[in-house]
Fold these 4 entries.
Entry 1:
Amino acid sequence: MKKLFPIVAFVAVALISLTMAGFAYFATQEAARIKFEGTADDALSRIESRIDLHLSLLRSTQALFDARNGDISRGEFKAFFTALDIDDNFAGLRGVGFLRLAKTGDEAAVERDILHDHGSAHPIYPATTQQWRTPIVLFEPLDTSNQSIIGFDMFTEPVRRAAIEKAMADDQQHASGMVQLGQGAGVRQTFTGFLVFVRLNVETAPDVINASRSSTAGFLYAAFRAQDLFQVALSHAPLLPVNVEVYDGKPESGNLLFCSEAPPAERIGAKLLARRDIVVAGQPWTLLFRPTSAFEPPSSRAIPVMLGLFGLLLAGAIALVARYQERAYDAKSALHETTEKSLLEKDLILQEMKHRIKNSITRVLAIARQTASQATDVKEFSASFSARLQAMAASQDMLTRSRWQKADLGDLLRIELGQVFGKELPEGVLSGPEVLLDETTTQALGLTFHELATNALKYGDAGGSLNSVRGSWALKVDWSVEGRGRERTLVLNWREAGQKELEAPVKTGFGTKLIDLNVTRELRGTIARDYHADGLKVEIRIPLAA
């Protein structure tokens, strides 16, 4: 579990940081949406205020007609609108007009009234099969470019007719659908816009046409150029960073009344879309608002990104610290384990050393007692005892160099024999395979070889004859290993050659006893001596540890 902690810490901190970054991002998005919704509401309020202002003019004109019971001459109509200064105060309003309502077939009477008011003939057009005729008889401002609209029958056009029929049924204002303004004989330029109609009632009239509730003389209407109307509504300072699309009804390409010149921002224009559905004089409109490049969100989008990156860096740093802490803990644990192991090994070594020292002291004391019992004087005791201690020391030195593991049999023989004879042994004296001895075997055989060499030096062919017989050494030592595995046995042959006949000694000295004790008791082996005319042969057989 400790090894997984850095990964778990990284994942946990990273998830928390990314979650916080996600919340910050959504909060930024929501703040931008709320701010843009407010901007869209502001734009909508400007549009609705401008439309209400224009419709109030239509209501004022209706009040004028009502006050005069519908009897308004062209001059009075013109004076009224001239005083209002429509061009400066009502931008987007193309004009206000009056439609005379008449039955089909009564066009002549209407044409006479038009001739009387305008001083020129304006026939009613176009021809129609409809029951009603609603030609334009008054319109302001009326300049030379739109004189031809006088006499135009709006009831012949389906979109205008639908709004007029609604206005015939009540006294409310009714807007038409999207129309092309400027239609008439000789008119070259048209504008996209809409019309608003309201019924005009009179109390008595000789040519009254009965309506549902009162006598209807005709309809007042206001014509609006959509581009100018909405552009003026949105151009007030401060300018709003919004793209506006106004649709007559559903938001379809064929119903587009107006579109702002400033395009929507590509980056956020599709995400921040505000829709408003309104009703203007009974006609449903759809307005779509999108932010332009001038729109500034209330908070930067870089904040969530920076927060997420910072969180990932923090998670990585915590994971690294956890990893280093884990490694430090592992190193501390390993050090503690090593220390415990070292202390245990040290204790074992101390116990082993105490045991070995105790055994060595016991052996030294035994050698000292036996040597003293055989010596005739102090000098002889000192020489014998020192030689035996040196033999033990040589064995101990070999074991120390091998870190108390194993000692080589050939090296042990060379050291012990070299100490006794005082020189290096020539080639051919020792022969045998490599045999590694444990501590007990090394110490026991070390003393054994010392005693055998000492006896050879003392009782063999004295001095020179032992060193050379017929040009060769009088001592030969060879060994071999018999058996395998746990049944291995070391067989060592010690041969001494001389010029005088050797006989078995009558009395057994301490050296011989020491040899027998080492081989038989210490090593659980056997030793056999063969005295013959030209020398001595000693065979030692000891089991080897596996």
Note: The two ends are 44 Å apart (CA to CA).
Entry 2:
Amino acid sequence: MPETEQGVELLRARLALWLGVTAALATSYDVSANVVGVWALGRHWSDQVAHPGNWAVAAEVVAFVALYLWVTRGRPSLRQLRAIDVALIAILSLVGAYLSYLCPGAVHPGLDLGAPPSANLPIGVISNIAMLCMRAALIPSTPRRTLLIGALSTLPVLVSGYLVYREYLSEDAINFALGTTLVSLVVIPIPVLISRMIYDLRRQVEAAEQLGQYTLEAKIGEGGMGIVYRANHALLRRPTAIKLLPTHRVGAVSLARFEREVLETSRLSHPNTVAIFDYGRTAEGVFYYAMEYLEGLSFEQLVEHEGPQPEGRVVHLVRQVCGALAEAHRRGLVHRDVKPANLHLCVRGDVPDFVKVLDFGLAKQLETKDPKLSTAGAVLGTPLYMAPEVVASADSVDARADIYALGAVTYFLLTGSPPFRGDSPLAVFAQTLHQPPEPPSKRLGKAVSRELEQLVLRCLSKAPEQRPDSAAELAEELLAVSGVAAWSEADARRWWQERSQVVLEQIELARRDASSSGERTVAVDLERRRRA
């Protein structure tokens, strides 16, 4: 099994499922056998409870529950998960062998009437093979590992059976040992074959997820334009973010234009702009580009978990975005989709509160079916952060549309909500075109630096000419704002030390819940490669 996060998560989920199933089966079998023993066979509950076989089954169930809790809540490592896999089979085989020895006539104390064993194959051998087949179907495993586990798990049952037959039917003991060993040799290859088939299928999926020198590891995001995965470079062993844009999502013509935009974007060198390493197409027409992988969180996640931000921090963050936009605007690139989700906050080079701007210049040419990003396939961007001129005529977009969007982002950071809100994109568009934004101080219900508030409202002006002329000018005006407590590096470092881990854990938990409830999109995007 590949030692990737995706592989570990799959093993964790399958082990949890198998532990839950075996615990439920053991409990139901134990309870039903004891009930039958009491009601149908006239046994007494006190005798049943005192029987060591029932204690063995109870201990087995407790062990399964403890392992289940460890797998689901303790986050064990890959090595520990593999040890749990072996422990589960060992417990099953040892308890089965013990019951076969204690109750040779029935293999359960609830049904045991003291009858001698028959010369037939014990139930313990059959149940052990059934459990091995279940394991092979559920647990990702190489055939060799399945064969080894199968051989080890069968041994206690064979020894127990031999001891029973030697005691009750001495003349058949050797025959039993030879017979059950032969049967096991014939039957054990069945779970090995199951493991082999499933293992080969997983290898085919992994091959389908190989994009050039990059191996997809875990899905980390999805939007109207495509899907983002964390990946690993085969030679550099460097974590990378891969964005996939299937042709069926954006159209062949739009994809060709998008490819040119990625090439242009890769030439940007500002430290606050996400770096693009590589791009290309798969044989199936899936366009992808590789960019630096960023730990941390988006502005959207920051406000979602921490609420409105201090004014000094807002100024500090937005000025970094201005730097990245200024370089792009000088090169003739307009972002067109500046929004909190595209602005990433991280620690870079030991510098806390470092901002990275994502998806430069990637919105205009793309068609998307996501209603949050498009209306009728003509107006592109995100309505909550879209400038009035973009709503009126997308062809008239220039750098001042990014200034408007950055003003809306600043408003969002200050107040915890975008300037305009509505139940539909059309409702937001109507406010964007005709309604003045509510001042941040009124939205918050408390005072905000007057100069900062006026600057934000200027950025949100309906007329482009009333906004700051450039991102560089906006950065200078932000620096000159008075009445704002400075956000120092010490303040930033303190937040990352005291709050970041809590927030990031909440985000990761939400991501895992979302990924476990959804399908693996790459299985659809690369379907033809998998069939090849």
Note: Confidence is low (pLDDT under 50) at residues 363-380, 518-532.
Entry 3:
Amino acid sequence: MLEAHSCAHDASAGTTQGEPTVRFSGAVLVRVSGLLTVASDRGDKPLSRELAAALGEHRSSLLRSLVSLWSPGARRLGILAIGLAAVAAVGGIAEVLLVSPLLSTAPSETGSPHRSAIAALVLVCAVVFGLLGFEWPLALATRRLGRALDQGLRRAFLRKLPRLGDRYFASRPVSDMAERAHLLHRVRLLPGLAADMGRCWLQLGLMTVAIIWLYPGGAWIAGALLAFAIAVPLLGVPMLAERDLRSRTHAGSLMRFYLDALLGLSAVRTHRAERAVAAEHGVRLAEWGRAGRDMVRASLTVETAVVLVSALGAGALVIGSFGGAPPAAARGGAGLLLLFFALGLPTQAARLISLWRQMPAHRSVILRLLEPLGAPDEGHPRGVHPDIAQSSAPESSSSWSAAAIGLESITVEAGGHVVLADVSLTIEPGSHVAVVGASGAGKSTLIGLLLGLQVPAAGRVLVDNRDLNDDPGCLAALRAVTAWVDPGVQLWNRSLAENVAYGADPPPSDDDVSRALADADLADLSAGWPRGVRTPLGEGGGLLSGGEGQRVRLARELVRVRRPRLVLLDEPFRGVDRDARRRLLARARARWAEATLIAATHDIAQTRDFTRVLVVAAGRIVEDGHPARLAADPRSLYRALLDGEARVGKERWESSIWRSWTVRDAHVIGEEP
């Protein structure tokens, strides 16, 4: 069964090619219940590994998950806090009951009408000061419990972080992860909120018992009010949680919008897109406002219903008590106590609703914070396969060998679209293979399979005849011995030397860093910098040009893995001039001549030096062979790509419509003919 709720105004249903379809826009909440078992005899497509794992995932209790974050000492402190909260709640009711003798005008047996009142006053003062003595340690206990919960969650996340896969972070917006980190402190409020809610429930129950004791005839009214005050918040939680989720979804969309606008501020100004950005912001702000108002209306509806019914019930109790003049309620102070408790029911119910109204927001935050802890492990470097990790051996070791790669009927899906379809491939150890094709053909996806960034929906990825995705240790070991150069690899706001040495274990020497910089044509890069190679590169390597950043990534891989078994180059020299690209690629291939090397590139002409070329189109390998053989075939796609590249170079870049300048050392030298 599937149930969907949408807060958007665009929702429609219809048929597509005879099959029913449902379309939503805006913030959509989808609930799925039940599990459809796919029978093989029906010929249905089997579930993917990730979907099958998600459907079979055990759902743990939120309370159990939170308690597990506490140390044994914190759990004992939690039990103490529960006891203190219970004593404080009972003491608050007892304090009111002890006032009863002060309100009585009947003479005592000793003949002194004020002696019992004085004794009651002394007892009340003792109880008040005693309760204050409980409130202070209760506040300290809840504060310590909140801090322990915060620290426990942070420790658990740090333990989980090395085992989280890259796919986990790639599938979530940066703004979403940033918001989670920002909301982490909210877990400190949970113990205090739970203590206040527990006290409120207990006091509401004790007040009901006191009313029944003072006025037995109103027991059914008091019981009904208690049940109503408890049932309405519980029944209203799904409604409030759904609206809170919608509001937070729109708030997250706004946060992402602000982040994108700031990152693209230069482009927005350059293309004069301020109006379009402002219009889009207005739409998202209006949706967030509607979701917020819907949340407030639902909360006020629940709160008004509980308070109104409680007030009417309290009025019925008071009228019935004094109208019928029952013995327990008609005498002096007892009647005033009944009036106090009856009129206190709406106030206590309103307080309970106010506390309960905070629960959906806190629950949503906690679930989002706990969600990474339940994500599947991708593996950990400590669990490596000894056979795959053999590349860590010195160059003289006879156990070293290049990686053997095999793909068996691989299908990769992303966002409901097939990116790779039924791809089978074998790459012998030590082979150098180029991958070419149009943009979006699936070249990067092919490389991502070997890094574990993509998980096939069907088929197997084999490294040395071991399934990469069924053995987390195999994936971790392969990454440790893989050199990967890609424009998406992060550069840090640290020095040039630290960026080059990042990830190397053991850390490289200064001579190793200098050699790597020289091999990457960066030997003179830091000559004019204030601190040389110790100069920070700025956020995301902002001090560098795009081509310089790519060469820093190459230098990093030259020192990170002494002798890689697998080298993956995905547009490795984007932003570098043509001659430098050719030179750097040849140098990288010579440096890693014995490793298995796969290079995805749009520089078709440079692939003619490889011994094997894969041509990818529409998610399939349509051609596979030696570049000379493929180029000699006038019907081959590889030949068409070569001709197209040559034609663009001649007709476009060499056309007389272009004017060119030479820029060297940040100076324009002059115009070339």
Note: The chain has a mean pLDDT of 78.
Entry 4:
Amino acid sequence: MFLKYLFCLLLTSLCLLLSGCRSEEPVRPTAAAVSPTPSLPATDRPQPTELPATLPPRPTAAPTSPPLTSEQELANLVAFARLYGVVRYFHASDQVDAVRNWDQVVMRGIEAVRDSTTPDELARRLNDYFAPLAPTVLVISGEPDETAVFQPDTAPEQLIMWEHYGVDADNLYPLYTSKRVRTMAGNPSDSFHDPARPYLQPLGGGLTAVVPLAVYVQGGKTQPAISTDASLNQATSHAQQTEYLASVIMFWAITQHFYPYFDVIDADWNASLGQALAAILNTTTEAEWEIALQQLVADLDDGHGRITDLTESNPAIYSPFISLGWVEEQVVVTGTFAGARNLVEVGDIVLKIGAETAVDRLQEEMNLISGATAQFKRHLALQRVLAGQRYSSATLTVQHADGTEETLMLERDTLLNLIPPNERPANYSEVAPGVYYINLPTAVESTIEMELAQFEGANGLIFDLRGYPTVEPGFMELVISDTVSTAQFLIPQTTWPNRENVTYDNRAWTMEPRLEAPLSENIVFLTNGQAISYAETLMAVVAHYQIGEIVGEPTAGTNGNINRIELPSGHAVFWTGMLVLNHDGSQHHGVGVQPTVPVSQTLADLRQGIDTQLQAAITLIEQKR
């Protein structure tokens, strides 16, 4: 069981630099919906963002309330989730704006409605609960009535509604904002919502929420002017199961309205909500509840999708001191270090991990990883299949190069984030006559330009982007001959629920060449499924402007600045907060940057200490000389 839940225990720090980061069918950007590409100063670009590591969960505890499993209870929670999301993010009352503790609002709401026995009773309870928050919202059973909306006694002075640029989830990323905007009531613009024409949000079970997306303002206060309920922001204790139910609802709701990729992923997000809630209602331990939350995140198919435990710090996640790779459709040892060298060899095929086949064990890990492509999920899963508690043993059955099989017990004695993926040449080394190698995931920002300067006129340069770069994109200005732009970084501008009528602001930016001629005429970039986000920003520029050949495998297929929300369960969850399209407007998410010269590592080369992709890059340069 422990191994089954390792996904929640394991995630090494992954820096995600993202600067070069709808009815049910979201509106895609068109020429009219996307602003022209600006040339932004560095301070206005989407900024680098570092994700904290995924941390171990809190110790498993017995539930403090028994699980309830009726279909009606599940329907009650689904209806609450749908209404909560629209009220929180799109109902512009002063009362909504005054809430500072949405965790408590959601948990008390769950407790208020979860045991409703009929849809009519649920409607009454929802109306009673949301009245102090959203006094012009009505839940109706049966045929929805758009005329059942609040009308003020006197002519209003203003109208007010929410306007989201991305969405401000945790007041953490300045790039994303959410604010209420006002207009004069007598002459609203075409883009402003009409309070008399409310939004109809189906809740299920024959219930519909009638939600005005703009609210009347009189005397500086939204109407009807009622006193804010001070108890809304008061913290009270709740059952731990309720914390997890609330966490599912809050994460589902914010992504339902603002995640930009539902039209290109294979996900039924409404079904995912029901499955996650049902999983928590029908299980009894925190470990199981955390898995349900993790599965919800995985259903987004988002390479930035991460769940971290905020109640722990400095996670100690250990593994045997070896690295694994996916070579010729097999799990293979790609690196051995320290004492592990005496037991396994590079090129050994891993047949079993414990009692499971290595392939099955790998797939089990991949099922709980959020990723847009199989190559990225596999990359992360390979890091985790051997991990566990310090000084415990991992049992492996391996097949050596001579065909013999051996079952080994390897001690988990090394911090997971200290294990390199494999051995690579030294940075800036000469890997062939006049051909120099630059490993961008280990390059040092303060010295890279000085190091590169010495290679002017070189026979060839090989930039390794099989991983996440540690340097700013300025080095690219030494290898380009004309002004280049990044791909399209489109921040959703949202005033409607459920991703309806979204427009986009393009935050692409440009780079200018700094040399009369690039450092070298022969440049090759190495890449694979480890390259995500900022790495893909660079690779997309290389691909579009044909700066050099791309050797290796497709990238991770996820780019764009992240967003983050803290949840009542003690976790933070991350996801991609903006839409990134290729330069020509085609899909990037789930596709990635494709190599111009596809090459995969071979088992024979691995056993001889040859990096197949690096050797292909060297050969390519030598052929062009």
Note: Residues 44 and 547 are 25 Å apart (CA to CA).
